[in-house]
Amino acid sequence: MIAPIKSQKPVRVLHLINGEHYAGAERVQDLLGLRLPDFGFEVGYVCVKPDRFASRRAAQDAPLYDLPMRQRFDLRPAMAVASLVRAQGYRLLHTHTPRTALIGALAARLAGVPMVHHVHGQTLVEVGGRWRCRAAAAVERLSLGTAKRIVAVSPSAVEYLGRQSVPANKIALVPNGVPASKLARRHRNAGDPWTLGTIALFRPRKGTEMLITALAELRAAGLNVRLRAVGPFEDRGYEAEVKARAQALGLHDHIDWIGFSSHVDRELTQMDMMVLPSLLAEGLPMVVLEAMSAGVPPVGTRVDGIMDVIRHDVDGLLCEPRSGDLAAQIARVIRGELNWQQLSDSAVARHRECYSEESMAGGLAEVYRDVLQM
């Protein structure tokens, strides 16, 4: 990783993002806006589906432009992006979704600047209908033909890109990173009740129903445990469905639905374990890294992305997706079969060694310098 640079005039990089949510990928984009200036790069944003990102981002000093696409294959914003690149002196375009790759590929050619693309997940296995996933993956693959580098956030993402016939010399591995927690770590006393936490944009792929079932199983086994659920639901219909399931299992008084919070670090101090029971592959989940930074042992499913970071029985726990194994794994910690404090200490060390925000920004700065031949 290159060292931070303070004295040189910054190089301007324009990030093309969707912008309708503020979840894991958007937190990466936001952190890059905050940290890349330390390495000589000034970030601007274009939102093609403007919504929550603008108001919730921490990088408020970075310029942000709304250039909405009217539908999935609307190419008209590409002209405006190219004009913006030329007018504001941006030297590189950085895209983050299949939709923005489509716009970015054309805009980069029109403006005569290189493009870098960031793969935050595995497009072929996203929820939304098989034909839509295949169409999005095809658009992404075609758009990346002219990309100078494709950034993968985990080793499993590198393998995924290889299966999509992306040349190995175009792929750069830059793991996600998060800030070190500045808050006091959680302390547990023998006999304290247990609080499970989950932090997500709640949608079917996140396995929330599996977590609710596991909570019911743990309580039925006589374990004093409750759930703190932090984050918004993708839509009201799914929210009603999930909460009705919790009600039917008698969990109404044992789940705190917190909603969106911009203070994830504070929420983590109220959790004993952070559970991410994803049913499908992830990129490299930011919430798992944030939990590790805070010393909260993460519990996740054996899917790509999560398996890249959690070491089973070392700094967290893994279980099979769509199975009854989740409650059994959590119970091992509650019953003392695994030492919670040792898991917590190992998680903090794992974050510090591999997943800091500095390592993420510095790794991406290396990619930029290579592409720009600096």
Gap between N and C termini: 15 Å
How does CATH name the architecture of the largest domain? 3-Layer(aba) Sandwich
The helix-and-strand class reads alpha/beta
CATH superfamily of the largest domain: Glycogen Phosphorylase B
Rounded mean pLDDT is 92
How many distinct beta strands? 13
Main β-sheet, spatial strand arrangement: 3-2-1-4-5-6-7
Strand proportion, as a percent range, falls in 15-25%
| CATH fold-type name of the largest domain | Rossmann fold
Shape: globular
Main sheet properties = 7 strands, parallel
Order of helices and strands: EHEHEHEHEHEHEEHEHEHEHEHEHHH
How many domains is the backbone divided into?
A: 2
> Helix amount, in percent?
40-55%
Sequence stretches where pLDDT stays below 50 over 5 or more residues: none
Alpha-carbon Rg, integer = 21 Å
Note the total helix count: 14
CATH class of the largest domain: Alpha Beta
